[in-house]
Design a protein that fits this description.
Shape: elongated
Strand order of the largest sheet: 1-4-5-6
Largest sheet: 4 strands, antiparallel
Order of helices and strands: HHHHHEHEEEHHHHEEHH
Number of strands: 6
Number of helices: 12
Helix content: 55-70%
Radius of gyration: 39 Å
Amino acid sequence: MKIYNKYIAAIALSLILASCKAPMATVIKDEMKENVPQNFNQEDQGDANNNSGTTPWRQFFTDPNLVALIETALKNNQELMITLQEIEIAKSGVLAKKGRLTPNVSAGIGAGVSKVGRYTSEGAGDATTEIEPGKEMPDPLGNFEGGLTANWEIDIWKKLRTEKDAAVAHYLSTVEGKNFVLSNLIEEVADNYYELLALDNQLDIIQQYTKLQQRALEISKIQKEAAAATELAVKKFEAELAKSKATEYNIRQEITEKENEINALCGRFPQPIVRSKGDFMSMIPQTVYTGIPSQLLANRPDIKQAELELKSSKLDVEAARKEFYPSLEISATLGLEAFKPSYLVKLPESMAASLVGELAGPLIKKSAIKANFQTADARQIQALYEYDKTILNAHLDVANLMSKVKNIDQYYKLKSEETKALEQSIDIANQLFKNSRADYLEVLLNQRDALDAKMELVEAKQKQLSTVVDIYKSLGGGWK
């Protein structure tokens, strides 16, 4: 017996030694996070006490029509609904991994019949066995049973706990992914809303320009009758009038498409978008405080999502490495068993129980486990690169938008000056044309330049407002 126990111990030891030769995972280091600059650029000194990314979106946006659209989008947007279901899926994954830490207990009943050969050890034993005096074992032999069965893998290497921790990290990353979708959704609704207001104002401008062309055409016809102008001037004004009317229909189509883009974000069928277009040019962009770059790590949900995915991938590698170690499983059964149903109630004779412990390590299947480990290790490195890329892109995004905010403000101021000067030149050119002191080409050129300047001024205002929204989102705002 002692020799037999020594063989068992030797086999178990060889399994452990053979299994523990697990490969080492690649050691990765978050160098990008450690090397985040102190400021977004050389001119920016940063202000740790001010960061617009921490401002809730209801405080950042003051237009009640825009706020109502955002609220509708947050309730109905399909992409957001899909993301919420991904969170539920990840939550179920956590419960599944947690369930593996507890024993699997099942209850069942069964019945069967079997007949063994007479000239076998089992058959000869049954033939000579008497359950009661004068009663031999029935042939064929029935079997009726019922009871509990339990299977439990003992987490001796904390592999199952590691898998659960990886699932929790992935679940938390899906929550941050939802926050990133929220931030993007609010940005998209706001940007499209401002673009719609800009199109409304451009439509008003082209309609005013059309009336101006109509008057110029009437003047040219009068001057032609008085021999002060030619048929060529009349045709030029007619062509310009037709062109402005065609532009008006083009803008109307863009307005319809932009309204439906907003409706799509709100998860609803086409309907008019409530807005106040008259206040567009007087809108003052919100003041944006950038804070310092390190605050991005805490505010931006896409960075936190990438960080949690990196953590999850590291835990996946650790769990995959522990697959090389032997596993200990315990199986137990407790119930009643007899060859006749009436004997099941005879206790303790009908009671049956078993308890088995199994220590097993991978030998033949090692190549498959090694492949899974290498896959997990590669995904860990991939997650690190994704995390570094997210941090870098976030920093560059804010730096670009900070520069854009400053430049678009100067651009808007200069465009305002240009528009005022050209509006004055239109009145002067029209007066000179009426008095035959300027030809129709001067009038047309002045009107076209003024139209272009007004259109560009409206676009500049839209870019000014949208850029502030973009930098607000880039600083991690829009989801709180």
